[in-house]
Amino acid sequence: MRIGVLALQGDFIEHIQILRALGVEAVEVRLPAQLRDLAGVILPGGESTTFGKLAVEYGLIEPLREFGKTGKPMWGTCAGMIFLAKEVGRAQPVLGLMDVKVKRNAFGRQVESFEVDLDVPVLGAEPFHAIFIRAPLIESVGEGVRVLARLDDGAIVAAQQGNLLATAFHPELTRDTRWHRYFIAQVKPVA
Q1: pLDDT digits (tens, 9 = 90+) for 89-127
Q2: Rounded to an integer, what distance in angstroms lies between the CA atom of residue 76 and that of residue 57?
Q3: Which residues form the catalytic set?
Q4: Are 34 and 59 in contact (CB under 8 A)?
Q5: Is residue 191 part of a domain?
Q6: Could you give the count of Cα atoms lying within 13 Å of 151 in the half-sphere of its Cβ?
Q7: How many domains does the chain have?
């Protein structure tokens, strides 16, 4: 099984290291041709406007959009969640695949970054220690979007719509591999 990690900017190396530690062939994706023969793609955290600009420059917007429409799993973490969303409240290049409205930098500046234990039933009974760095949140979800985790105040921070998974936080910055295992479990090997 080969899973790609968008490697234009951001924390793609951390995702690759976890995938490889879990026995998955992980590849860096910078060009459209590198999407061939992948069973899934992770869109990592970073800076969403930079992601969009670089994706446009390297001709990746439409190939990534088409990849997501094939039903192959895609997972966006933090900025990757913004990149997946249909609505982000401002003009910037996005894939527009997931029927969610996302608020960028929802918790404020870098100094307002925080960590919290989340209840995530799809991962089991043990809380997941989530790291939020200039994180977005999901303001609303469309039909067919399943909320996977919320903060204590009800803010949506993880959701899934079919093959599309989104987390507002950075699972790749923890030692807990349950989110990566959850994503891998949804990936079907390419024949």
Answers
A1: 888 999 999 999 999 877 766 767 899 999 999 999 999
A2: 20
A3: 78, 170, 172
A4: no
A5: no
A6: 20
A7: 1
